[in-house]
Design a protein that fits this description.
Layout (H helix, E strand, L loop, with lengths): L2 H13 L22 H10 L2 H13 L16 H11 L3 E5 L6 H5 L10 H23 L10 H25 L8 E4 L11 E3 H18 L13 H15 L3 H12 L23 E5 L12 H5 L6 H4 L2 E4 L1 H5 L45 E5 H14 L3 H12 L14 H15 L6 H7 L3 E3 L11 E3 L11 H6 L9
Family: Belongs to the SusD family.
InterPro entries: SusD-like_N, SusD_RagB_dom, TPR-like_helical_dom_sf
Pfam families: SusD-like_3, SusD_RagB
């Protein structure tokens, strides 16, 4: 086990004791946790610069640690938890068989976004604000959000913390605002680790903070050579920035250029063989950001693999099937290598499950071990090609859009020349379709649905709302500020939720 994870699993206990409002104090899972003051962190970092690095490792650990949403649920396992939430809300992922009930009522029946007392609202909120708090502790230890570290090591850590803070705020904006409205007050902003509560601020203020954080992060991370892909480097920060700009929608040319910059980080697109190779190895050249999981980390059933993989000790193996929406599957050409990612066996329990996209390398139903060793992917370079294509088209540069779209599609079908004839809305529609196909199950469909202001029609293999057409800004697709936040944050009430 490498040094990164040794630091991370120790320091995670320092930073898990946070949630907006005071309700976190009532969480038994956090008993005994402690949080340092900003001055203590800064003093400690002055004595031992490794303190902030250890804290940063701890924040990264939160992204794959179970219970970081403040629950004991089997759908609470870090950032990948919300990849499942969002894929199901987008309807591209169908819960086609439900035996144990995870995701059924609250997510696939979309009850949680209509009722702020549902725990899923609180879980998403607590997780991403814990990431914010952890990043703020690192930033405070380096002198505060406006400080400029005086050495390269400090700048690298500051860059990672600011990029990850922006990443957390980005997902909060996606989950808690229907669509970008600059003047709508949506979330509190915290830029230090000591402010306990705050009022909601406008979306413009939050996006401005994300852009500032990411601009600084990109500058600070110039020259940073990371030791493993769990850490954010310059190209990952550029990728996050491209997503932020794409969601804001006010400068598609800048978003296009940022995605192109991220591509230049030296990654290669996953080949046709690799996209049916299991998505289980962080060393895959096309992965920009991910986590190298191993038996010492001890993840098991409560994990993304435990919810998604038929070939692990998992819910899909025992009776909860997650499948591609059959309408989306029908749009994948027969000669597209990605068609083979899904089992085409009508009438079977495994029909349209991703048995040849995501799988443990042992490929044994129920798994040969209860410990997860297959890795997590957070970002890959194909996303940047597709985002560069989308933003290029929105900026009026159809030629560039076609080039970046063909970069991906030519790896998936024998002949991608049909793209040469596309322009305008037809080109945008094709980019959106290819984004949904290429990134299925990776937590990006919801983001693309919002950017494209799309309406999704559910296929026949869903357990609820079959055939329903649901627009991107439907009330049922956006979470509510949770009950606990309203109870304990004096600046937020039911009147302005």
């Amino acid at each position: 086990m490498n040094k990164f994870f040794k630091f991370g699993l120790l320091s995670v206990f320092v930073i898990t004791g946070f949630s907006c409002g005071d309700d976190f104090l009532e969480d038994p899972a956090l008993e005994g946790s402690a949080s340092l003051t900003s001055s203590q962190l800064e003093q400690a970092a002055a004595v031992d610069p490794g303190v902030t690095g250890a804290l940063m490792s701890g924040v990264y650990s939160l992204t794959f640690t179970t219970g970081t949403g403040g629950t004991g649920g089997h759908d609470d396992f870090g950032h990948k938890s919300y990849d499942v939430f969002s894929d199901m809300l987008s309807s591209d992922m169908a819960l086609s068989v439900s035996t144990y009930g995870w995701y059924r009522a609250s997510i696939t029946e979309m009850q949680a976004p209509l009722d702020f007392t549902f725990g899923d609202n609180r879980q998403v909120w607590r997780y991403y604000y814990r990431i914010v708090r952890g990043c703020n502790e690192v930033i405070d230890g380096l002198g505060g959000t406006d400080a400029v570290p005086g050495n390269a090591e400090g700048k690298y850590i500051m860059g990672q913390a600011k990029a990850l803070r922006a990443h957390a705020y980005f997902y909060l904006t996606q989950f808690y605002q229907k669509e970008y409205d600059a003047t709508e007050e949506i979330l509190p902003i915290y830029t230090d680790a000591i402010t306990p509560n705050g009022p909601k601020v406008t979306a413009a203020e939050i996006y401005d903070l994300m852009e500032k954080d990411l601009t600084e992060a990109i500058a600070y991370l110039d020259g940073f050579n990371r030791s493993n892909k769990t850490e954010i480097n310059k190209s990952v920060a550029q990728g996050i920035y491209a997503y932020v700009l794409g969601a804001r929608g006010t400068d598609p040319l800048k978003a296009h250029n940022m995605a192109v910059a991220a591509i230049s980080g030296g990654y290669t697109l996953m080949s046709g063989t690799e996209v049916t190779g299991g998505f289980n190895n962080v060393n895959t050249p096309g992965w920009m950001w991910g986590v190298d999981l191993n038996d010492e980390l001890g993840l098991g059933l409560v994990s993304w693999w435990g919810q998604m993989d038929y070939f692990s000790y998992s819910y899909p193996a025992f009776g909860d099937a997650k499948a591609i929406d059959d309408g989306l599957f029908a749009q994948i050409p027969a000669n597209d290598v990605r068609k083979a990612q899904f089992t085409n066996s009508p009438g079977s329990y495994t029909h349209l499950m991703p048995l040849d996209k995501f799988y443990d390398s042992d490929r044994t139903r129920y798994g040969t071990s209860r410990i997860v060793k297959a890795d997590y992917v957070y970002m890959r370079v194909a996303e940047m090609h597709l985002l560069a294509a989308e933003m290029g088209a929105r900026a009026g540069n159809d030629a560039a859009a076609r080039t970046y779209l063909k970069n991906v599609v030519s790896q998936r079908v024998p002949d991608a020349s049909y793209i040469d004839a596309l322009s305008g809305n037809a080109l945008l529609d094709e980019i959106y379709l290819q984004t949904r196909i290429e990134l299925w199950g990776e937590g990006k469909s919801y983001l693309a649905m919002k950017r494209n202001r799309a309406t999704i029609t559910r296929g026949t293999n869903h357990l609820s709302f079959v055939g329903a057409s649901i627009p991107y800004n439907d009330e049922r697709l956006t979470f509510e500020i949770p009950e606990g936040e309203i109870q304990f944050n004096p600046f937020i009430s039911t009147q302005n939720n």
